[in-house]
Every structure is written in structure tokens, then in C-alpha cells.
Amino acid sequence: MAEEMIVKELDEVVVRFSGDSGDGMQLAGNMFSNISATEGNDISTFPDYPADIRAPQGSLTGVSGFQVHIGAGKVYTPGDKCDVLVAMNPAALKTQYKFCKPQAVIIIDSDSFTKRDLEKAKFTLENPFSELGIKNEVVSAAITTMCKESLKDSGLDNKSILRTKNMFALGLVCWLFHRDVKVGEKILREKFAKKPEIAEANVKVLYDGYHFGENTHASVSMSYTVPSKAQKEPGKYMDINGNKATAYGLMAAAEKAGLQLYLGSYPITPATDILHELAKHKSLGVKTVQCEDEIAGCASAVGASFAGALAVTTTSGPGICLKSEAMNLAVITELPLVIVDVQRGGPSTGLPTKSEQTDLLQVLFGRNGESPMPVVAASSPTDCFDAAYLACKIALEHMTPVVLLTDAYIANGSAAWRLPDLNTYPSICPPYVKLEMADSWTPFQRDPQTGVRYWATPGTPGFMHRIGGLEKSNETGAISTEPENHFLMTKLRAEKVEKIADSLPPLTVEGDPDADLLIVGFGGTYGHLHSAMDQLNAMGKKAALAHFRVINPLPKNTAEVLRKYKTIVVAEQNMGQLAGYLRMKVEGIHLHQFNQVKGQPFVVKELVEAFSQLF
Hints:
By secondary structure, the protein is of the alpha/beta class. It folds into four domains: 4-223, Pyruvate-ferredoxin Oxidoreductase, domain 3 (3-Layer(aba) Sandwich), CATH 3.40.920; 236-422, Rossmann fold (3-Layer(aba) Sandwich); 430-502, no CATH class; 507-610, Rossmann fold (3-Layer(aba) Sandwich). Helix content is 36%, strand content 20%. Helix 11 links the parallel strand 10 and strand 11 (287-290). Helix 1 (25-38) crosses helix 8 and helix 5 (143-150) packs across helix 9 (196-216). It is globular and about 85 Å long.
């Protein structure tokens, strides 16, 4: 063993924690992210949950992973493959080794690699490393034994002691990358403030893992540092995931508009955390109702909107199917409503914990009748705040339901987020009726410039009215089945949505201004597409990226941008939904497609290889 260990400085590193669902890998990964963010690194994370509620211990289907990419500069993705893999059992090693770089360090709990453990993971040889052909550096630590020895006098039962193994692994990883373990201690004491004995046990084991690496050099040839080189904008930062950022964006919009926020929802993976987060903020006037089903969640939100609240309903793809009739009620009544769709793998129950972009055509067209609805797509965990704010602004100012698309990848993934100054955000001004309108007002009287109907909330003197799901007369607001009136109302609702484009920023293009290839995408693929563009430009190829935030209506310069490029590739995690929509909306363009539906994020290397063939 060398007395002085070599310390290598890296610009970026990817660490993947993996083990049974009960091994606490999500907590260990989240804490390592927070510790690294505190050090000033940029971060991007990817929690990879199993679809099983609780698979048998040690089974291949029950492995839970958490990947974090930390960088000295800007980090766009959680990384394709990892530099360090923590595998707490043979099943984790077998399923997660494919994510390792050739030179990756693998850390294992040797106590969990017994013959019985190997059999559960369907290994046939006693040496799993030779069976998998692994030649990487392996740090084999008796983590279970050391945790038991460390806490033998703690008074905790054996089950509670074994739950600390993740902190030993985290401490070892913190040593390997020269992270400040005291930050981890602070996080643990805050998390377990009401259970001090649990906090003390986890803190002790965290330090034990750190000192194990420090005292033994953990049998590795070198340790690493990832200094912070990026000049961050001054302010307060926090590690935030997309669901929490979405919840914060909704609350910010309600405050800016001077309205109460109402959420009518039904729990569904991976959107439920938005309901959980908003339920914590009753002090801010937030009202949350967990309804009996998806339809009731959306219908109650429509009622809250009629009553004058900023109304929201949250769900995933299967819930959008069920909510569609109530969503259409908001279309025909022209009431503001935000529908958050955290996309997951489908069809049917599909892949509940995995991520796709396969709901696009459903939210654009998946309702009966001509039912135009604006669609906004968030591009990253932190962008969920701004996208939620924008969706609320469009809904309230244009009296329309709006769909906000996120996905499981950005909803559960996290990044360092600078707390915003709400004073810098644009105002939100709903088109309320004015008192002088009382004598001549009808429910579908519209602003002549925007086509938006005026909003009369219940209790406003002189503005008593009824609205509902049957078609109404444009002139009187009474029920009407007149053919010409229905055609007129259909056109007015469509024109109102199209006019929203007048208030939206133009489609921007990043990258080489003289690009030979334009990459097009939307939503949570932004980081991977941006990284692919950067790599292509570094290779001497000329690439640019146009990423859509608002998909309906399209930005007014969409056709101008797309017709400028000879070669365009639309990359999406579906079978070509955005590409088909763009062909329908913009005539005379030829689009190449890159499509994957794997339930996993794009791999940047695969994108670069595919895009390179188009030059």
C-alpha cells in the first residue's frame, strides 16, 4: 500500500448507487448530490426505480439505482456510464455493471455476496466477477459486518442497524472524492431530527465509511477531486427535483396572480409527489383534495376554476385518458385549468416508474370534438418551475385549459436550482369583467384583440350566469344547437389558442450559427440533445439545437427556422409524434427521425453516432 495516495483532478465524474429497494440507495445518492452541490459542483441526477412495489430481497427485478453526475462546469445529463458503481449485492452487480465505464471502480459489500445471494441473482459460478468478465478495480468491504460492529452498543435492533449500510457506502464514496462528510452529517441530523438515536447511528456509520477509505486507501490506486470551476450566479441554491419545482412554480403563479391555488388530484406514479408537496403548504392558502378517481380530480378542479381559483390537476398518461372528458369541459366552458402530465412508459399500466414522451399526441388531440388546448413542455428538473409558471400564466390570461408535460426522468431527477426572485417574473393578469360591462355582458363576450372571454367569478354583482358542457350561443350564452353558431364557436376557440403565439417568445436556436444539421426536440431530452450537439461541434461538425417549450401553439417563427436548414433530425422518446405534428403544421419540410422507446433516457454516445451519419 502506498503511503501517499495519488489525487487526480477531474472535470466531471458519474457515480451510480445500486442495491435492493430497501437498501437506501436513493437516500445515499440524494445526499451525495447535495454534498457535491454544497461544494459548488453542478449536478444532474437520475433515480432509476424498479417497477415492482417490493420485489423479493436480492432479486434481479428489485434493484434500485441512483446515478449522479457532478461537474466542475455545466452538467446537462446524469451521464451515459459511471466512473464508480456501488453494488450492494450480486443482483445489483449483475444488472448495473452494464452502466460502468471500462475503467470504473466497483464498490461491493462482500458480506452480501454469499452463495445464497449469488443464487438469488442467478449466478452459476462462485466468482461473479469472472462470470461477468469484470476486470475493473473492485473495492470489497465487509460493510454489513462493520456496521454491526460499529453499532453493537447503540441499542438499535438488527434491522435498524442493517439500514445504515447505505451510509457506510456513502462515507466511502465521500472519501474517494474528497467530499466534506460534515455536510452529510448535517443532512442526517436534519432528516432524523425527531429520531436522534437513528440520526446518531447513521452519522457514526457515515464517518466509519469515510475513515475506512482513509485508513486503508480502500485498495484503489488513486482518489479524485472535482473542483468547482463554474461561475455561478450569486444567490441561494438548493437541490430540487422536477416534481417539487413544479409544485413551487404553481404556488408562485398563484401568488403572482393573487389567487388561491386548488389541486384536485388522484395518486399516480410518477406524479404523486406534486400532491404531497402542495399538501404541505396550507399556510400559503393552497388547497389540496385527494379525490376518489382521476375524473373527479379533474372535474373538481374545473369547479374550483369556475369559483375563481387557480385550478390544477396532476396525473400521468393513464390518468389523462380518464380526465379527457373533464378536460373538454374546461375547453367548452373556456375556464383556466392546468393539467400536469408527468409522462411514464405505456400503454396501459406499462412501465410506471420509467420515462417516455409518448403522451404528446394524446394531449394535443386525445379528446372528442375540436378541442384545441395549449401544450407546454418542461426541459429539466429546474425548468419545471418556469414551465409551471408559464402554463399558469397562459391558462389564466387566455381562459383556457393548458397541459404541462414533464416526464418521470425530470420529475424524479434533480439539479442545483437558484431560488428565484418572484419580482423579476412577468405579471399574471386574468381578464376579469369590468363593472361597466354589467348591463351588456354575456358569458362569451370576448376581448377583440385576443379573442379571450371575460371572467366573471361567482358573487360579482350584476354578472350572474351559467356555463356548462353543452354548446352555447356566442351572443347570449344560452344553450344553442344552431349549426352556424357551433361552427363560429369552434373557430373562435381555435383562434384564441392560436393567438397565444403572439405573446410567446420565438423559437431559439443554440449552437453553431452556420450549422449543417439542426437537432429538434422537446421536453426532458434537452440535456442529452444539447450534450450531443456540443460533442458534434467539438468534433468539427456543425450542429445546432432547436428545443420546443411550447408545442401548441407553435412559436410564430417555427416555419422560418425549420426551412432554414437542409438537414433536420427530430429526436424524441416515442415513435415520431413531434415529427408528425411538425409535418402537419409546416409544409414542405423533410425531417429525419431518431426514436427510442426504452423507458430510459437517451444515451449521448448513441445520439452522436446516429447524428454523425447525417452530415
